Task: structure prediction
Amino acid sequence: MSATSRQGPGRRSLSRRGFLAGTGSVVGAAALGGFSASRAAAASRYSTPIGNGAHAQALVIGTGYGGSVAALRLAQAGVSVEMIEMGMAWDTPGSDGKIFCTLTSPDYRSYWLRTQTKAPLNYFLGFPIDRSIPKYTGILDAEDFAGITVYQGRGIGGGSLVNGGMAVTPKRENFSYILPSVNADEMYNTYYPRANAGLGVGLVDPTWFDNTAWYQFARVGRKQAGRSGFPFVFVPDVYDWNYMQQEDAGTVPKSALGQELLYGNNYGKKSLQKTYIPAALATGKVNISPLHKVTSVSPAPGGGYMVLMDQLDTSGNVVTSKQVTADKVFFAAGSVGTSKLLVRLRDTGQLPNLNAAVGQGWGDNGNIMVGRANQIWDPTGAKQSTVPCGGIDNWTAGGAFAEVAPIPTGIETWASLYLAITKNPHRAQFTWNAATQTVDLNWQQAWKQDGITMAKSIFDRINSTEGTIYRTDLFGVYKIWNDTLTYHPLGGAVLGQATDDYGRLAGYQGLYVIDGALIPGNTTVNPFVTITALAERNIENIIANGG
Ligand code: FAE
Result:
């Protein structure tokens, strides 16, 4: 049954009883078992795009973490939900029999409407490695702003399709820095555990870690961190660790051990396509429309909201435009997507009552990448799992938490690669540019220097202890730091500023933000567990209060 109806607003109220009745199912059933059946159901659901003129009780823009939590919990409370996703469904294999391509052979599926790849690690031994690809609605968007490239996932599942799956709950003592107005007790007692369970978070088996060739690179990272006096912590992940051990044993097709990184994962990763989304679809109250891009939201004459969207083909052309109505609209288009939409809608007159905080408080989670050249007796291994599982914690003393990342090229590189999350204090703002009809972001590349300084608090010391140097051949010619990107956009519609303390947008009833845009720029660790937990907290309050 389609989630769409034409009956008009207010058919069912959101009720606490309905919400509570449904909450138990996602964690056990969807996160851990019944995956194939759910996936099959999901595939058939994706093929019913929303009709022009349709009415939805709740419309969710985007299918990443915030959107998936919202859809599931609303549906469990009895609300019909239409999810609108600009990217593809990613449920159909290509001619190679695989849904996703590998890191080392990126093809048309790799990038969102680009004619050349834009790999974060774009040089090797000083040579550029980007290559031409056909323009296609691929899975990874490298969205360029003046001072930074923001990587984002495109498709049903949002960032969960492309990310490393590192599922880190921040240290409790850092929580007031991340979300100062949110009750930490509630988050750590209820919503972080709920998010971790719903996402299927787990840890690598330490005995296997200690022995497998696939994590030699991480063991080198641990040894060197220890020799310089830094704590090394295991980082949980949503990858199915048992599956990875079977990959190692050669009994199942490889994904983490088969160079699948950045452009999707065919087997072992529990993306949202295996957890929250099938659970939402299993309620029978959720419909998803892939390749539909929301372009406008404005008050509808009879109440509720009018939502305009373009249906795209796989070259990015508009096939048709649709106009639908919805009682309530949830912005879950990601930090950048939600911020761009809201800023444009406010400043072009569709949602003029949105306040001045919309567009502000955007940060890069302090992302900085760097490589080190190891001594000849410290090889990092030709075999490298694409799933990082450990990090170096120097947050309190130096403002940096650095993950030991793989370089899964299949050859020995003697390189150690890191993604550092730093306490970079700079925050940027999105603004509407009437001349170019675009939303600009005023981030400056020079601001990354603060993050570099913090990352150096770890790596200068390790280099000194080990007698090693930085690699200069991975991000350009004689370029040490990758200071041009982020994988972790956060903010732009900050909780308690652009919205109330639960994501209700100021100025309008029935409009909500429920994604990374709520978080003001930094989570001290990788962000998606916090985005999920905050969404769980906010949607519970929204449902309990009838919206
Ligand atoms: P997100 O997941 O980005 O979902 C937004 C969705 O909205 C996307 O599917 C968009 O296509 C869609 N959308 C946007 N605009 C529109 C529109 N106008 N109409 C319709 N649909 C639209 O948002 N985080 C971690 O915690 N651990 C990691 O290991 C990690 N690794 C990462 C690696 C990479 C390469 C990348 C790109 C990100 C990584 N992240 C990681 C970040 C994480 O994926 C990101 O914080 C979350 O996905 C953000 O969740 P949201 O719900 O905010």
